[in-house]
Protein backbone atom coordinates (compact mmCIF):
# COMPACT_ATOMS: atom_id res chain seq x y z
CA UNK A 1 0.00 0.00 0.00
CA UNK A 2 1.01 3.53 -0.67
CA UNK A 3 -0.90 6.62 0.45
CA UNK A 4 -1.65 9.72 -1.59
CA UNK A 5 0.70 11.67 0.63
CA UNK A 6 3.50 9.20 0.08
CA UNK A 7 2.99 9.44 -3.69
CA UNK A 8 3.02 13.21 -3.47
CA UNK A 9 6.21 13.10 -1.39
CA UNK A 10 8.01 10.90 -3.92
CA UNK A 11 6.82 13.05 -6.83
CA UNK A 12 8.26 16.17 -5.22
CA UNK A 13 11.68 14.53 -5.38
CA UNK A 14 11.59 15.06 -9.13
CA UNK A 15 12.50 18.66 -8.30
CA UNK A 16 16.02 19.56 -7.29
CA UNK A 17 14.95 21.91 -4.50
CA UNK A 18 13.01 19.13 -2.78
CA UNK A 19 15.84 16.64 -3.26
CA UNK A 20 18.21 19.11 -1.69
CA UNK A 21 15.89 20.00 1.16
CA UNK A 22 15.14 16.36 1.97
CA UNK A 23 18.57 14.99 1.01
CA UNK A 24 16.88 12.17 -0.88
CA UNK A 25 16.71 10.74 -4.40
CA UNK A 26 14.56 8.19 -6.23
CA UNK A 27 15.73 5.07 -8.08
CA UNK A 28 13.61 2.54 -9.95
CA UNK A 29 13.77 -0.98 -11.32
CA UNK A 30 15.51 -4.14 -10.10
CA UNK A 31 18.81 -3.29 -11.82
CA UNK A 32 19.29 0.28 -10.56
CA UNK A 33 17.82 -0.32 -7.10
CA UNK A 34 19.74 -3.60 -6.84
CA UNK A 35 23.05 -1.96 -7.73
CA UNK A 36 22.48 0.74 -5.10
CA UNK A 37 21.62 -1.85 -2.43
CA UNK A 38 24.69 -3.88 -3.43
CA UNK A 39 26.83 -0.78 -2.99
CA UNK A 40 25.52 -0.28 0.54
CA UNK A 41 22.95 2.47 -0.07
CA UNK A 42 20.24 2.21 2.60
CA UNK A 43 16.72 2.93 1.34
CA UNK A 44 14.54 5.21 3.41
CA UNK A 45 11.48 4.07 1.47
CA UNK A 46 10.98 0.97 -0.64
CA UNK A 47 7.87 0.20 -2.71
CA UNK A 48 7.57 -2.91 -4.82
CA UNK A 49 5.11 -5.26 -6.44
CA UNK A 50 5.03 -8.84 -5.21
CA UNK A 51 7.36 -9.87 -8.04
CA UNK A 52 10.32 -8.08 -6.46
CA UNK A 53 12.03 -9.51 -3.42
CA UNK A 54 15.35 -9.04 -1.80
CA UNK A 55 16.64 -10.78 1.28
CA UNK A 56 17.17 -8.41 4.19
CA UNK A 57 14.96 -5.66 2.79
CA UNK A 58 11.32 -5.22 3.64
CA UNK A 59 9.31 -3.36 1.06
CA UNK A 60 5.84 -1.87 1.01
CA UNK A 61 3.98 -4.13 -1.37
CA UNK A 62 2.04 -2.10 -3.94
CA UNK A 63 -0.21 -3.03 -6.83
CA UNK A 64 0.86 -2.46 -10.45
CA UNK A 65 -1.61 0.42 -10.50
CA UNK A 66 -0.11 2.01 -7.38
CA UNK A 67 3.43 1.59 -8.75
CA UNK A 68 2.32 3.25 -11.97
CA UNK A 69 1.02 6.20 -9.94
CA UNK A 70 4.20 6.75 -7.94
CA UNK A 71 6.69 5.95 -10.73
CA UNK A 72 8.48 8.48 -12.94
CA UNK A 73 8.84 5.87 -15.68
CA UNK A 74 6.60 5.24 -18.64
CA UNK A 75 6.97 1.53 -17.94
CA UNK A 76 7.39 1.08 -14.16
CA UNK A 77 9.64 -1.82 -13.19
CA UNK A 78 8.62 -3.69 -10.05
CA UNK A 79 10.39 -1.50 -7.51
CA UNK A 80 10.88 2.14 -6.54
CA UNK A 81 13.19 3.19 -3.74
CA UNK A 82 14.03 6.46 -2.03
CA UNK A 83 17.65 6.76 -0.87
CA UNK A 84 19.62 9.41 1.02
CA UNK A 85 21.92 11.40 -1.26
CA UNK A 86 25.51 10.55 -0.24
CA UNK A 87 27.09 13.31 1.79
CA UNK A 88 29.52 15.44 -0.14
CA UNK A 89 33.09 14.87 0.87
CA UNK A 90 34.42 18.36 1.43
CA UNK A 91 38.09 17.68 1.75
CA UNK A 92 38.37 15.10 -1.01
CA UNK A 93 41.57 15.55 -3.01
CA UNK A 94 41.66 14.28 -6.61
CA UNK A 95 43.58 11.03 -7.00
CA UNK A 96 44.14 8.68 -9.91
CA UNK A 97 42.14 9.56 -12.99
CA UNK A 98 38.95 11.57 -12.48
CA UNK A 99 36.47 13.51 -14.58
CA UNK A 100 35.39 17.12 -14.08
CA UNK A 101 32.17 18.24 -15.78
CA UNK A 102 31.91 21.94 -16.44
CA UNK A 103 28.26 22.66 -17.14
CA UNK A 104 27.01 19.44 -18.76
CA UNK A 105 23.29 20.15 -19.05
CA UNK A 106 21.51 17.18 -20.54
CA UNK A 107 20.42 14.50 -18.01
CA UNK A 108 20.84 11.77 -20.63
CA UNK A 109 24.40 12.88 -21.37
CA UNK A 110 25.23 13.05 -17.67
CA UNK A 111 23.80 9.56 -17.10
CA UNK A 112 25.80 8.18 -20.01
CA UNK A 113 28.99 9.85 -18.78
CA UNK A 114 28.52 8.25 -15.33
CA UNK A 115 28.09 4.88 -17.06
CA UNK A 116 31.27 5.45 -19.09
CA UNK A 117 33.20 6.39 -15.93
CA UNK A 118 32.00 3.21 -14.26
CA UNK A 119 33.12 1.10 -17.24
CA UNK A 120 36.58 2.64 -17.29
CA UNK A 121 37.03 2.34 -13.53
CA UNK A 122 36.95 6.08 -12.85
CA UNK A 123 35.84 6.50 -9.25
CA UNK A 124 35.04 10.19 -8.98
CA UNK A 125 33.28 12.77 -11.13
CA UNK A 126 33.58 16.40 -10.03
CA UNK A 127 30.76 18.63 -11.29
CA UNK A 128 30.45 22.40 -11.46
CA UNK A 129 27.34 23.66 -9.64
CA UNK A 130 25.66 24.40 -13.01
CA UNK A 131 26.05 20.81 -14.21
CA UNK A 132 22.78 18.83 -14.30
CA UNK A 133 21.94 17.20 -10.98
CA UNK A 134 23.08 13.58 -10.86
CA UNK A 135 20.23 12.75 -8.44
CA UNK A 136 17.57 13.79 -10.95
CA UNK A 137 15.52 10.60 -11.54
CA UNK A 138 16.23 10.82 -15.29
CA UNK A 139 19.98 10.79 -14.65
CA UNK A 140 19.78 8.03 -12.05
CA UNK A 141 17.89 5.81 -14.52
CA UNK A 142 20.18 6.69 -17.44
CA UNK A 143 23.19 5.46 -15.44
CA UNK A 144 21.63 1.96 -15.38
CA UNK A 145 23.02 1.55 -11.86
CA UNK A 146 26.49 2.98 -12.44
CA UNK A 147 25.68 5.84 -10.08
CA UNK A 148 26.02 3.32 -7.26
CA UNK A 149 29.72 2.93 -8.07
CA UNK A 150 30.85 6.41 -9.08
CA UNK A 151 31.21 9.19 -6.54
CA UNK A 152 29.61 12.49 -7.63
CA UNK A 153 31.05 15.65 -6.09
CA UNK A 154 29.52 19.06 -6.85
CA UNK A 155 32.11 21.70 -6.17
CA UNK A 156 33.82 24.85 -7.38
CA UNK A 157 35.90 23.41 -10.24
CA UNK A 158 38.10 26.49 -10.47
CA UNK A 159 39.17 26.06 -6.85
CA UNK A 160 39.54 22.29 -7.17
CA UNK A 161 41.72 22.55 -10.28
CA UNK A 162 43.76 25.49 -8.98
CA UNK A 163 44.72 23.43 -5.94
CA UNK A 164 45.73 20.22 -7.67
CA UNK A 165 49.22 19.26 -8.76
CA UNK A 166 47.81 16.67 -11.17
CA UNK A 167 47.79 17.34 -14.92
CA UNK A 168 44.49 18.81 -16.14
CA UNK A 169 43.38 17.55 -19.55
CA UNK A 170 40.64 18.79 -21.85
CA UNK A 171 39.69 18.45 -25.50
CA UNK A 172 39.92 21.86 -27.12
CA UNK A 173 39.96 23.10 -30.70
CA UNK A 174 43.63 24.08 -30.38
CA UNK A 175 44.59 20.83 -28.68
CA UNK A 176 47.08 18.17 -29.78
CA UNK A 177 46.01 14.91 -31.41
CA UNK A 178 45.08 12.69 -28.46
CA UNK A 179 46.29 9.59 -30.28
CA UNK A 180 49.82 11.02 -30.44
CA UNK A 181 50.04 12.46 -26.92
CA UNK A 182 51.47 11.01 -23.76
CA UNK A 183 48.68 10.55 -21.27
CA UNK A 184 49.33 10.04 -17.59
CA UNK A 185 47.60 7.50 -15.37
CA UNK A 186 46.69 10.26 -12.93
CA UNK A 187 44.92 13.47 -13.82
CA UNK A 188 41.67 15.35 -14.21
CA UNK A 189 39.84 15.23 -17.53
CA UNK A 190 37.56 18.26 -17.98
CA UNK A 191 34.52 18.00 -20.25
CA UNK A 192 32.40 21.05 -21.03
CA UNK A 193 28.88 22.22 -21.76
CA UNK A 194 27.03 20.83 -24.80
CA UNK A 195 26.78 24.15 -26.58
CA UNK A 196 29.55 26.32 -25.19
CA UNK A 197 32.26 23.88 -24.21
CA UNK A 198 34.50 24.62 -21.25
CA UNK A 199 34.06 27.97 -19.49
CA UNK A 200 36.81 30.57 -19.89
CA UNK A 201 38.17 30.45 -16.31
CA UNK A 202 38.49 26.66 -16.39
CA UNK A 203 39.97 26.67 -19.88
CA UNK A 204 42.83 28.79 -18.58
CA UNK A 205 43.65 26.12 -16.01
CA UNK A 206 43.95 23.28 -18.52
CA UNK A 207 47.56 22.14 -18.60
CA UNK A 208 47.34 19.58 -21.41
CA UNK A 209 45.12 20.37 -24.39
CA UNK A 210 43.92 17.42 -26.42
CA UNK A 211 42.03 17.07 -29.68
CA UNK A 212 40.05 14.12 -31.02
CA UNK A 213 40.83 14.54 -34.72
CA UNK A 214 37.94 14.45 -37.19
CA UNK A 215 38.37 12.11 -40.13
CA UNK A 216 35.96 14.04 -42.35
CA UNK A 217 36.11 17.72 -43.23
CA UNK A 218 32.91 19.43 -42.15
CA UNK A 219 31.85 16.67 -39.76
CA UNK A 220 29.54 17.72 -36.97
CA UNK A 221 31.21 17.91 -33.54
CA UNK A 222 31.00 14.92 -31.21
CA UNK A 223 28.41 14.71 -28.45
CA UNK A 224 29.98 15.28 -25.00
CA UNK A 225 29.23 11.75 -23.77
CA UNK A 226 30.78 10.26 -26.91
CA UNK A 227 33.87 12.46 -26.56
CA UNK A 228 34.17 11.43 -22.90
CA UNK A 229 34.10 7.76 -23.90
CA UNK A 230 36.78 8.18 -26.56
CA UNK A 231 39.04 10.13 -24.20
CA UNK A 232 38.59 7.64 -21.34
CA UNK A 233 39.27 4.75 -23.71
CA UNK A 234 42.53 6.38 -24.82
CA UNK A 235 43.69 6.97 -21.23
CA UNK A 236 42.80 3.51 -20.02
CA UNK A 237 44.15 1.43 -22.88
CA UNK A 238 47.60 2.80 -22.12
CA UNK A 239 47.47 2.42 -18.35
CA UNK B 1 1.86 30.58 -45.77
CA UNK B 2 1.10 26.96 -45.13
CA UNK B 3 -2.28 25.31 -45.51
CA UNK B 4 -3.91 22.87 -43.13
CA UNK B 5 -3.48 20.16 -45.73
CA UNK B 6 0.20 20.88 -46.07
CA UNK B 7 0.62 20.67 -42.28
CA UNK B 8 -1.25 17.39 -42.25
CA UNK B 9 0.92 16.07 -45.07
CA UNK B 10 4.14 16.92 -43.23
CA UNK B 11 2.83 15.44 -39.98
CA UNK B 12 2.08 12.13 -41.69
CA UNK B 13 5.77 11.86 -42.51
CA UNK B 14 6.40 11.18 -38.84
CA UNK B 15 5.17 7.67 -39.62
CA UNK B 16 7.40 5.22 -41.43
CA UNK B 17 4.65 3.90 -43.68
CA UNK B 18 3.96 7.39 -45.06
CA UNK B 19 7.66 8.12 -45.47
CA UNK B 20 8.03 4.91 -47.42
CA UNK B 21 4.92 5.49 -49.52
CA UNK B 22 5.90 9.07 -50.34
CA UNK B 23 9.66 8.49 -50.40
CA UNK B 24 10.12 11.66 -48.33
CA UNK B 25 11.57 12.73 -45.00
CA UNK B 26 11.51 15.89 -42.87
CA UNK B 27 14.48 17.89 -41.60
CA UNK B 28 14.45 21.00 -39.43
CA UNK B 29 16.67 23.86 -38.38
CA UNK B 30 19.36 25.85 -40.20
CA UNK B 31 22.12 23.34 -39.35
CA UNK B 32 20.45 20.11 -40.43
CA UNK B 33 18.63 21.59 -43.44
CA UNK B 34 21.79 23.52 -44.39
CA UNK B 35 23.96 20.39 -44.28
CA UNK B 36 21.48 18.52 -46.47
CA UNK B 37 21.36 21.38 -49.01
CA UNK B 38 25.19 21.55 -48.97
CA UNK B 39 25.31 17.82 -49.72
CA UNK B 40 23.08 18.29 -52.76
CA UNK B 41 19.75 17.12 -51.33
CA UNK B 42 16.93 18.88 -53.24
CA UNK B 43 13.97 19.90 -51.08
CA UNK B 44 10.51 19.13 -52.37
CA UNK B 45 9.01 21.51 -49.80
CA UNK B 46 10.67 24.29 -47.85
CA UNK B 47 8.99 26.35 -45.12
CA UNK B 48 10.80 29.06 -43.23
CA UNK B 49 10.34 32.19 -41.20
CA UNK B 50 11.73 35.43 -42.62
CA UNK B 51 14.88 34.97 -40.53
CA UNK B 52 16.07 32.07 -42.68
CA UNK B 53 17.44 32.65 -46.14
CA UNK B 54 19.56 30.72 -48.51
CA UNK B 55 20.72 31.81 -51.93
CA UNK B 56 19.24 29.72 -54.71
CA UNK B 57 16.40 28.32 -52.63
CA UNK B 58 12.92 29.78 -52.49
CA UNK B 59 11.00 28.97 -49.36
CA UNK B 60 7.39 29.40 -48.34
CA UNK B 61 7.54 32.12 -45.72
CA UNK B 62 5.59 31.13 -42.62
CA UNK B 63 4.92 32.87 -39.31
CA UNK B 64 6.43 31.58 -36.07
CA UNK B 65 2.98 30.30 -35.19
CA UNK B 66 2.65 28.41 -38.48
CA UNK B 67 6.12 26.93 -38.09
CA UNK B 68 5.22 25.82 -34.57
CA UNK B 69 2.17 24.05 -35.99
CA UNK B 70 4.03 22.13 -38.69
CA UNK B 71 7.20 21.40 -36.69
CA UNK B 72 8.02 18.17 -34.84
CA UNK B 73 10.30 20.07 -32.46
CA UNK B 74 9.49 21.52 -29.08
CA UNK B 75 11.45 24.60 -30.11
CA UNK B 76 11.07 25.04 -33.89
CA UNK B 77 14.11 26.53 -35.59
CA UNK B 78 13.39 28.87 -38.50
CA UNK B 79 13.13 26.25 -41.25
CA UNK B 80 11.52 22.92 -42.05
CA UNK B 81 12.20 21.05 -45.26
CA UNK B 82 10.86 17.92 -46.90
CA UNK B 83 13.42 15.98 -48.94
CA UNK B 84 13.27 12.82 -51.06
CA UNK B 85 14.79 9.80 -49.31
CA UNK B 86 17.94 8.86 -51.27
CA UNK B 87 17.39 5.82 -53.46
CA UNK B 88 18.85 2.66 -52.07
CA UNK B 89 21.84 1.47 -53.99
CA UNK B 90 21.10 -2.17 -54.62
CA UNK B 91 24.41 -3.36 -55.92
CA UNK B 92 26.61 -1.46 -53.50
CA UNK B 93 29.55 -3.58 -52.36
CA UNK B 94 31.16 -2.78 -48.99
CA UNK B 95 34.46 -0.93 -49.34
CA UNK B 96 36.84 0.62 -46.83
CA UNK B 97 35.50 0.63 -43.30
CA UNK B 98 31.74 0.51 -42.83
CA UNK B 99 29.25 -0.11 -40.04
CA UNK B 100 26.44 -2.66 -40.01
CA UNK B 101 23.65 -2.17 -37.48
CA UNK B 102 21.78 -5.30 -36.51
CA UNK B 103 18.55 -4.17 -34.87
CA UNK B 104 19.54 -0.88 -33.19
CA UNK B 105 16.16 0.32 -31.91
CA UNK B 106 16.51 3.69 -30.23
CA UNK B 107 16.28 6.71 -32.56
CA UNK B 108 18.67 8.69 -30.32
CA UNK B 109 21.26 5.91 -30.45
CA UNK B 110 20.92 5.62 -34.22
CA UNK B 111 21.31 9.39 -34.65
CA UNK B 112 24.39 9.41 -32.44
CA UNK B 113 25.91 6.47 -34.34
CA UNK B 114 25.43 8.32 -37.65
CA UNK B 115 27.16 11.35 -36.10
CA UNK B 116 30.05 9.14 -34.92
CA UNK B 117 30.39 7.58 -38.38
CA UNK B 118 30.52 11.05 -39.91
CA UNK B 119 33.25 12.12 -37.47
CA UNK B 120 35.39 9.09 -38.21
CA UNK B 121 34.95 9.38 -41.97
CA UNK B 122 32.88 6.23 -42.34
CA UNK B 123 30.82 6.65 -45.51
CA UNK B 124 28.27 3.87 -45.30
CA UNK B 125 26.08 2.35 -42.61
CA UNK B 126 24.27 -0.86 -43.50
CA UNK B 127 21.14 -1.50 -41.42
CA UNK B 128 19.06 -4.62 -40.90
CA UNK B 129 15.40 -4.05 -41.78
CA UNK B 130 14.51 -4.12 -38.06
CA UNK B 131 16.90 -1.27 -37.24
CA UNK B 132 15.17 2.03 -36.45
CA UNK B 133 14.41 4.10 -39.54
CA UNK B 134 17.12 6.68 -40.20
CA UNK B 135 14.56 8.98 -41.87
CA UNK B 136 12.47 9.21 -38.70
CA UNK B 137 12.47 12.95 -37.84
CA UNK B 138 13.92 12.15 -34.38
CA UNK B 139 16.90 10.38 -35.94
CA UNK B 140 17.42 13.05 -38.59
CA UNK B 141 17.56 15.74 -35.89
CA UNK B 142 19.78 13.65 -33.59
CA UNK B 143 22.38 13.36 -36.38
CA UNK B 144 22.80 17.16 -36.27
CA UNK B 145 23.26 17.09 -40.05
CA UNK B 146 25.58 14.09 -40.27
CA UNK B 147 22.91 12.18 -42.15
CA UNK B 148 23.71 14.39 -45.13
CA UNK B 149 27.19 12.85 -45.32
CA UNK B 150 26.68 9.20 -44.39
CA UNK B 151 24.96 6.79 -46.75
CA UNK B 152 22.28 4.65 -45.06
CA UNK B 153 21.51 1.30 -46.70
CA UNK B 154 18.76 -0.95 -45.34
CA UNK B 155 19.43 -4.47 -46.49
CA UNK B 156 19.62 -8.13 -45.54
CA UNK B 157 22.78 -8.12 -43.42
CA UNK B 158 23.17 -11.88 -43.55
CA UNK B 159 23.34 -11.79 -47.32
CA UNK B 160 25.59 -8.72 -47.37
CA UNK B 161 28.06 -10.24 -44.92
CA UNK B 162 27.99 -13.69 -46.49
CA UNK B 163 29.03 -12.19 -49.81
CA UNK B 164 31.90 -10.01 -48.63
CA UNK B 165 35.54 -10.98 -48.52
CA UNK B 166 36.26 -8.20 -46.01
CA UNK B 167 36.87 -9.02 -42.34
CA UNK B 168 33.72 -8.76 -40.22
CA UNK B 169 34.27 -7.34 -36.74
CA UNK B 170 31.96 -7.23 -33.73
CA UNK B 171 32.28 -6.72 -29.99
CA UNK B 172 31.21 -9.91 -28.26
CA UNK B 173 31.55 -11.23 -24.73
CA UNK B 174 34.03 -13.87 -25.89
CA UNK B 175 36.01 -11.41 -28.01
CA UNK B 176 39.66 -10.42 -27.78
CA UNK B 177 40.81 -7.19 -26.16
CA UNK B 178 40.35 -4.58 -28.91
CA UNK B 179 43.37 -2.62 -27.69
CA UNK B 180 45.64 -5.63 -28.33
CA UNK B 181 44.22 -6.74 -31.68
CA UNK B 182 45.32 -5.95 -35.18
CA UNK B 183 42.58 -4.00 -36.90
CA UNK B 184 42.44 -3.63 -40.67
CA UNK B 185 41.68 -0.43 -42.54
CA UNK B 186 38.93 -2.21 -44.46
CA UNK B 187 36.11 -4.18 -42.94
CA UNK B 188 32.57 -4.24 -41.62
CA UNK B 189 31.94 -3.46 -37.95
CA UNK B 190 28.68 -5.00 -36.73
CA UNK B 191 26.86 -3.42 -33.78
CA UNK B 192 23.80 -5.08 -32.24
CA UNK B 193 20.48 -4.41 -30.57
CA UNK B 194 20.41 -2.51 -27.26
CA UNK B 195 19.00 -5.40 -25.25
CA UNK B 196 19.89 -8.53 -27.16
CA UNK B 197 23.10 -7.69 -28.97
CA UNK B 198 23.83 -9.23 -32.35
CA UNK B 199 21.35 -11.80 -33.70
CA UNK B 200 22.48 -15.44 -33.83
CA UNK B 201 22.75 -15.76 -37.65
CA UNK B 202 24.90 -12.62 -37.93
CA UNK B 203 27.02 -13.60 -34.91
CA UNK B 204 28.04 -16.75 -36.76
CA UNK B 205 29.37 -14.68 -39.63
CA UNK B 206 31.66 -12.53 -37.47
CA UNK B 207 35.25 -13.36 -38.39
CA UNK B 208 37.04 -11.19 -35.80
CA UNK B 209 35.58 -11.00 -32.34
CA UNK B 210 36.53 -7.99 -30.26
CA UNK B 211 35.98 -6.97 -26.66
CA UNK B 212 36.13 -3.52 -25.06
CA UNK B 213 37.54 -4.52 -21.67
CA UNK B 214 35.80 -3.18 -18.55
CA UNK B 215 38.05 -1.59 -15.98
CA UNK B 216 35.69 -2.22 -13.09
CA UNK B 217 34.20 -5.55 -12.03
CA UNK B 218 30.42 -5.40 -12.15
CA UNK B 219 30.30 -2.31 -14.36
CA UNK B 220 27.14 -1.86 -16.37
CA UNK B 221 27.56 -2.61 -20.10
CA UNK B 222 28.26 0.24 -22.52
CA UNK B 223 25.50 1.88 -24.53
CA UNK B 224 25.65 0.85 -28.21
CA UNK B 225 26.45 4.36 -29.46
CA UNK B 226 29.28 4.67 -26.92
CA UNK B 227 30.67 1.27 -27.90
CA UNK B 228 30.50 2.25 -31.58
CA UNK B 229 32.49 5.41 -30.84
CA UNK B 230 35.20 3.53 -28.94
CA UNK B 231 35.52 0.90 -31.66
CA UNK B 232 35.64 3.48 -34.48
CA UNK B 233 38.23 5.49 -32.55
CA UNK B 234 40.43 2.38 -32.21
CA UNK B 235 40.18 1.56 -35.92
CA UNK B 236 40.84 5.09 -37.09
CA UNK B 237 43.71 6.00 -34.81
CA UNK B 238 45.71 3.19 -36.33
CA UNK B 239 44.87 3.83 -39.97
SSE diagram, text form:
The structure is a homodimer of 239-residue chains.
Chain A: H1 4-12, H2 16-22, E1 24-28, H3 30-38, E2 45-48, E3 60-61, H4 64-70, E4 79-84, E5 97-102, H5 107-119, E6 124-127, H6 137-142, E7 151-154, H7 157-162, E8 168-177, E9 187-192, H8 200-203, E10 208-211, H9 224-238
Parallel strand pairs in A: 2-3, 5-6, 5-9, 6-7, 8-9, 8-10
Antiparallel strand pairs in A: 1-4, 2-4
Mean pLDDT value of chain A: 95
**CATH topology grouping of the largest domain in chain A:** Alpha/beta knot
> Rounded to an integer, what's the Rg of chain A over CA atoms?
19 Å
Q: How many structurally independent domains of chain A?
A: 2
CATH class of the largest domain in chain A: Alpha Beta
Helix content of chain A: 25-40%
Molecular structure report:
Two copies of one chain form a homodimer. Chain A has 239 residues and is α/β, with parallel strands linked by helices. Chain A folds into two domains: 4-84, Ribosomal protein L30/S12 (60s Ribosomal Protein L30, Chain: A); 97-238, SPOUT methyltransferase, trefoil knot domain (Alpha/beta knot, 3-Layer(aba) Sandwich), CATH 3.40.1280.10. In chain A, 32% of the residues lie in helices and 21% in strands. In chain A, α5 runs parallel beside α9 (224-238). Chain A is elongated. The termini of chain A are far apart. In chain A, 47% of the residues are buried. Chains A and B meet through α5 and α9 of A and α5 and α9 of B.
Keywords:
32% helix; 60s Ribosomal Protein L30, Chain: A; 2 domains; alpha/beta; Alpha/beta knot; homodimer; 4-stranded mixed beta sheet; 239 residues
Amino acid sequence: MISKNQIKYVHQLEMKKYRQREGLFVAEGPKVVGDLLDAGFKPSQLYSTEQWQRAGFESNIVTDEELRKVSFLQHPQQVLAVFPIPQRQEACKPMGLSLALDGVQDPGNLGTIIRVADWFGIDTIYCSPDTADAWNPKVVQATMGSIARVQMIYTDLEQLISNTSLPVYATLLDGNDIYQQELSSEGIIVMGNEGNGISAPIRQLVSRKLLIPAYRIGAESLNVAIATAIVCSEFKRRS
